[in-house]
Structure prediction request, 326 residues.
Amino acid sequence: MGHSQHRYRTPPRINNADGKLRTVGFELEFAGLTLDEASAAVRQALHGEVSTATAAEQKITVEGLGEFGVEVDWDFLKRLAQQHQARHYELSLLSDTASLLVPVEVVCPPIEITALWRLDQLVTKLRQAGAKGTDNSLLAAYGVHVNAEIPELSAQVIDAFLKAFCLLQWWLVKTHKVNLTRRITPYVDLYPDRYLRQVISAREPALAQIIDDYLDHNPTRNRALDMLPLFSELDAERVTATVEDLRIKARPTFHYRLPNCLIDESDWSLAESWNTWCIVEELAARPEDLACLCDEFLLHWRPAFGVEEAAWINRIDQWLSESGLA
Prediction:
């Protein structure tokens, strides 16, 4: 932590079920750079070396951290580049043109929670190279995805995290100041009210029930907290029976998609996205607080109207203050 001006919050549980440090992967979407420019910034920031490259994506290996991906976020171009269906010059030209219209994305490998500060130099170099974030375009829906390894693959832990997120989702939108363009696109939709009530009222649900309830209400990747990668890790057959999407990658992580990418702001770092997510971690690790807030939420539920959003955000602010987390 002392290596960086930014403080990354330490969550209540830093180890996984095997006793190893939990890891976090980040995905940053931004404009303003071509694939080659973004790749060069990553190499310079982390002293990495390109291991593979196409006109659509490059892999950069960094000693001690792993393999970073830099890619034009356009599936058509990726497939074309992989299949070599055009000459390299034509693909490169298409890639550079695409980077003006679709985001370039840096995909970080899983990094130990205590080493997240090492990504600050990456953000700085990308900013200095000219990367532009969420607020740079009225059409842009660029964001940061946080892939936090789950502490334990159990129904109890998954249920606690889902309850915590459901109670916090409106507060999270406000706290992140989620860009209007991103809010009106479907990519970071919140959970629907019927699902909120389902999760918050459930008492010690079995894993199969948790997954079935989720798929029933959220058969899509386009959620602020996308649970499909985690559920695919646990029961891929159950997921693919409902959602056919080749982009779903099974992994033991939460896929949190809500934060803006403010990479062009000088005082911004990934700590901002991570620290806000950690409030979900804090609530999930406090069973008494979680149970009390669930009971309050249901007490304030009104038929056909649900819970009044602004009042509930105020209640969460009160809880944060009382808990010393504000």
Q: What stands out?
A: The longest strand covers residues 23-30.
